[in-house]
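Here's what a typical entry looks like (Acetylornithine aminotransferase):
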Amino acid sequence: MNAPALPVSRKTFDEVMVPNYAPNEIVPVRGEGSRMWDQNGREYLDFACGIAVTGLGHCHPKLVAALTEQANKLWHLSNVMTNEPALRLAKRLTELSFASKVFFANSGSEANEAAFKLARKHASSRHGSAKHEIISFFNAFHGRTLFAVSVGGQEKYTQGFEPLPGGITHLPFNDVAALTKAVSSRTCAVVIEPVQGEGGVMPATPEFLKAARELCTRHDCLLILDEVQTGNGRCGTYFAYEQYGVTPDILTTAKGLGGGIPVAAMLTTDAVATSLAFGTHGSTYGGNPLATAVALAAVNEIALPETMANVKARGEQMREGILAIARRYGVFDGVRGMGLLLGAPMSASWKGRAKDVVNAGLRHGVWCLVAGADVVRLVPSLVIGEADVEEGLRRLDAACAELAGASRAANA
């Protein structure tokens, strides 16, 4: 006989959880498609997708079927043995990308950790230890491990964790001249997000990515593209790099890869992969059969032409809706991003108030995100319907109307 479930609430979080998060007061208990419901039965439209993770919405039937089928077969082996779902997923990812080799992990941080280690190992084995510099960019975000936050270009994530790993140089994003000056014989890798997600939903310019590719080739260093957030259909092609005409040496991806199951991947070429020889890196859970079975179902659904067509159509619909809200209330200063990874920067008079928009949105039944204090981020399901986008925008409009009204009243 099963024990009864213990009653829990948002208050329970403060009692039992480490206080490194500050979750909203609502506690969701169920989701279906692009909607979810909290403990009180209230419904919300999901424009956040667990930070761009549930790319096929909540409880997608094909993912539920894959999970259920594999759960009745085999959950875990470790990498002492390989397994069929992991091999099938790796093969599918190589079919969809430039890569010929795959390493599986559990999170974007872990995938990036593997990429950074591989870059240094590759350079060391070919040129010696002096070629170890990693070039990254201000406002970048590459994860929360010590190495990943050090490579990321946001000081707020490294304060108090010093001393940090060395050999990392940060440059202004999209600055071709600064990058050209910095890359040298000491550089082992240049690491770029095609769209800086946590850094404000800021796309790389084509000129910047092409310059990075050319410089890496010239100086025999590796171009790493962090597609943890931009990959898996989020930007309108399976990987965002496809839209730039630039091919990386290493690519990392996670978030939408498993549709909500923790799984990540580092993709690379045969020539680079040889540097990560037996025993040089590993993961106990990485590539476990349960996660990779669900991820394969997600990848196959995302890669469908109709899914990519929906990303582009709904992305345009959301852009138009956000611009209309901006015109009505003056809260936003336009919209930027790619596909269904969109950012609405706050206007000059609303700087620092992105979180206020998110909170007001929840009051009106739509869940959005921030990308820093000055940008509202919208990352709905890749298969969200036109009617749900329209309704979500209506609720966001109501939230902005509430804020604008309160602002006028306060200044009257």
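The domain at 74-302 is CATH 3.40.640.10 (Aspartate Aminotransferase; domain 2).

More examples are in the samples folder.
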